[in-house]
Amino acid sequence: MRPTLGILADDFTGALMVACYLEGAGIYAPLVFDSAAIDGTSSVVVAGARTRTVAVDDALTQVEAFADAFIRAGYRAMVYKTSAGFDSTADGNIGQVADFLADRLELRPVLMAAGFPSFNITTHQGYLFYRGRLVSESIKRYDPLTPMSDPDLVRFLSLQTPHKVGLVDHSQVRKGPVAINEAILRLGDCGHVFLDVSDEADLAAVCAFAAGRGRVFVASDPVAVEYTKLLLGQQQVKPAPSHARGPAVVLAGTVGPVIGRQLDAFSCFYPVLTVDISDPRPVESLAADALEWACLHLAADRPFAVATSAGPDDVARSQTFLGPIGAARRAESILGTLARLLYQKGVRRFVVAGGETSGAVVSSLLVKSVRALPEGPLGTGFCVTEGADRTSFFLKPGKHGGDGLLLDVLRAMENGDS
């Protein structure tokens, strides 16, 4: 398999989603979390970084390490995979990453495309619609880390880069690759070009254009997947490893109504502990207390969950003391530390809720690479480390899934499903 494409995602759950979709499409797509694990033995490699909400310098340090590793291994085309709605703040980091990759590969303009039409997340005339509403009028405006208050993604992305961001809207995209190219030429000197994805036809047209043109693409999940499929076609998939055995735990660091309902459903059958992150004691002390509680249930061979928020009041209190970013980082640190302690006690199945929390847990366990399992009845999210001592994960974005998802995931892991 000749190295062709390196995909770098801005969080771990997004990276896993892309890898799962590619595996389901018959494309072997190893998923790595450490640039040292990139070896050029596959046509495409997916890398998970933690660049969405960190400081710009930290994000660019991560991107540089992965980009250099891609190039050394022979991957010359690159995708920076963002969330479907280009979740970010006015300070970054999408524009800055696009600038870095453009300079590193000496290629402008960088193509950009957001949206996920099958989930009713679309862009039209440069405006982002989240489940049929302007993102600024949707639940996304309440996101604690990346509240999307401006639906004009061209204007919003322009705050993150000194280069002009041009727009090729739906009326041009729908006409296909030739019309897209003509529209870009009319834009003149642009650092980046944003392309509408108003529907599935737009998605196909954008990917067809990108596959014949660019080596740098900033794209949401389905755009990255379709682009990869056009570049590579179907390939023989190596057999995936089976799920690990042993105790199972749910770790929930995300907040919001979706995970709240999922934990409520879970608590009807299994115990749930909520850690108060506004408790001023050190992270290690809070994790140790949670471990002592967890050991009671490990001894009884029962699944259990540990969360860092019981609802809106908890979120408001912790953010008052710590600020939104500080509260999120403290929650991630507690659950990451607890995951390491639980692993030492024999836990080998982890269900993790929240993209940033997933990054913290996987990093704490020093996992360098995993094999994603193809999309199944529960969607994407399952992956397994390869080797003799396997660990199974289900990494889910905070807003993903129905009320019974946590129970269904544990049942699937037990039955060896995906």
TrEMBL record:
Q: Which Gene Ontology molecular-function terms are recorded?
A: ATP binding; kinase activity
Q: Which residues form the Four-carbon acid sugar kinase N-terminal domain?
A: 5-220
Q: Which residues form the Four-carbon acid sugar kinase nucleotide binding domain?
A: 249-404
Which portions of this protein are annotated as coiled-coil regions?
A: none
Tell me the domain of life.
Answer: Bacteria
Q: Which UniProt keywords apply?
A: ATP-binding, Carbohydrate metabolism, Kinase, Nucleotide-binding, Transferase
Family stated for the protein in its record: Belongs to the four-carbon acid sugar kinase family.
What is the protein name given in its UniProt record? Answer: Uncharacterized protein YgbK (DUF1537 family)
The organism's lineage is: Bacteria, Pseudomonadati, Pseudomonadota, Alphaproteobacteria, Hyphomicrobiales
